[in-house]
Protein: Queuine tRNA-ribosyltransferase
Amino acid sequence: MFEFDIQATAGRARVASFTTPRGQVTTPMFMPVGTQGTVKGISPDELHAVGSQMILGNTYHLMLRPGEAMVAAHGGLPGFTAYPGPFLTDSGGFQVMSLGHMRRITEDGVVFKSHLDGSLINLTPERSIQVQEGLGADIIMAFDECPPYPATTEYVKASLERTVRWLERCLNVKSREDQALFPIIQGGTDETLRALSLELTLPVNPHGFAIGGLAVGEPKTEMFPAVAFSTAGLPENKPRYLMGVGHPEDLVAGIALGVDMFDCVYPTRTGRFGYALTDQGRINMNSSAPRTQLQPIDESCDCYACRHYTRAYLAHLVRAEEMLGPRMLSLHNLRYLHRLTERARDAISNGTFHSWARVWADGYFKNGVPEWFSQALQTGETAV
Amino acid sequence: MFEFDIQATAGRARVASFTTPRGQVTTPMFMPVGTQGTVKGISPDELHAVGSQMILGNTYHLMLRPGEAMVAAHGGLPGFTAYPGPFLTDSGGFQVMSLGHMRRITEDGVVFKSHLDGSLINLTPERSIQVQEGLGADIIMAFDECPPYPATTEYVKASLERTVRWLERCLNVKSREDQALFPIIQGGTDETLRALSLELTLPVNPHGFAIGGLAVGEPKTEMFPAVAFSTAGLPENKPRYLMGVGHPEDLVAGIALGVDMFDCVYPTRTGRFGYALTDQGRINMNSSAPRTQLQPIDESCDCYACRHYTRAYLAHLVRAEEMLGPRMLSLHNLRYLHRLTERARDAISNGTFHSWARVWADGYFKNGVPEWFSQALQTGETAV
Structure:
């Protein structure tokens, strides 16, 4: 269980098979976010059809509604959501910070007011693990604090040290053998602090690691060096999960730097807002041009929307505020990100990853490939 | 083309196969409403899976947005919506009355303000046929006025006579041989006026007839006698379409009285509002009971929602305002109405229709079977 077998590499980038209790997945992979026990608008059969491998569930949302006991009564998230494959749950820490009101952080944990009914809720490392054991995902996360950006060096240091103490408490109460607990490397964009987080966390020797505290508002010129520093410090034989990251360009750069797992609400959220992802950037289906275009979003895409519908029809749905519009754009965008990781995996296996990534970037970035992206590719081109 | 072959009868009720240019359908049937070129939230593959045979499109909505020219550029509604089966379009008349602002009815047609942008639009019999030929449905409707309920006898009489003159104008401009134009029998709930409408309309000898002007607010004790009077006056060898009717009890009563085709937004609209149709009446998924029920909506239902989800999960989706909730409830409700017509067809074929309908009604009406329903069954039990 939780075996991670590297099958091909290209510099730091790697293709691996990762075995979980509910099945084997192939990395690098993108994980759709099923915040409240559903990837918004998408059925389990459709997730399979677009190539999803592992689905993310949110501890914060699900503990508030319907509560982990109701999910457990269904045999966990696979039974509740009817998606029979592997799941990953976050620890609730990040979302308490972003959604909870009047939060107070102490050594014990976090007290916050529910965004649903204002009730006072206490989330501790122990409670986070209890909830995640009820939700029953294959991969669960250690309870951490994700400091905002910017934050002072003192704050980030104190926070990451507390996160390490919370990790110990998570491990102490964790009881299910069929769940792998990933600790989360923090330290913001400061290499000294990232090094400290790595030093304090590595001895735990878990089945995999998450890289947290990034994609919280810092510029990409700071984020990707921090990713590069983190992956360089992590053991090669364990999966690495870059949390909350999922724009196409971030996936390609992250893969180059040796990241194996990604998640983000981006493909479904931007789909609900009327945007379609392509190799030439995003198409705004709210604009007037697509309304008269009789071709699909993307001739090369094999998703249901691209096989059945013209841009004109999809633009009509968006304009008419019809539910099928966000549904189809979400589906297409998930397929786009899954295909992107498939293409990256093929290129790694074929030894063409870096040239493929550069050609992709030339088509994708309309105003020239940004320096941070080229730098990430270059850094990743040589194995650590 | 447009052949209507009766295969079995039970009193006035009949099972028939109806051939259209885009395929053969079996009646009695319920037609889902694709108001703006989409059955809200449901894909074409799902329509096939739940047993939909013919989809309705709305001339009023589609002429305003995206315009019939754009639909025609896709080869009509089947190409635009990616639903390859038969379609029916209404004439726009009814929706101008219910949605248009500041309408003015003259002998020429109706002038109204678009509910989208307030622009002044002139809808005439000629324009309605032009739009419907662009939309390209298999069955199209004559342009009519549907008087409100209540209305004076004088008004309803003048209106139905004008509707007959409009029918002539529709037939004069109709140019496509592959579309069957159904005239609409009006006359409100007044038998003298219904008889007049029948007398003036029958000589046109169309491929089928619509029964209009009902389900607009009148009590069922007035509506179903008017249905019975209409079907009794229509030729047996032509399909009869009761417009805008689609509650389960109305389908069973209408079938008993010899109606072959129904349409209504009810199954999808009530699904979006959180209600699930069953043989025991509607389940309110917004209420607290379903939140802890681990069984499907309906053990006997073969829809995707019933095969995959518990009531607790679906109630969670509704409560969390997740898109998958209305989508799945709409799907289930469509399947429920299609199964209801399938069961009615089987019972007609087996010679058990009236006993089946009475058993169904005993389970469905929680406060006793209403008089209007029993009366409709009884009236329909004897062939005309």
About this structure: Residues 271-351 of chain A form one domain. The radius of gyration of chain A is 20 Å.
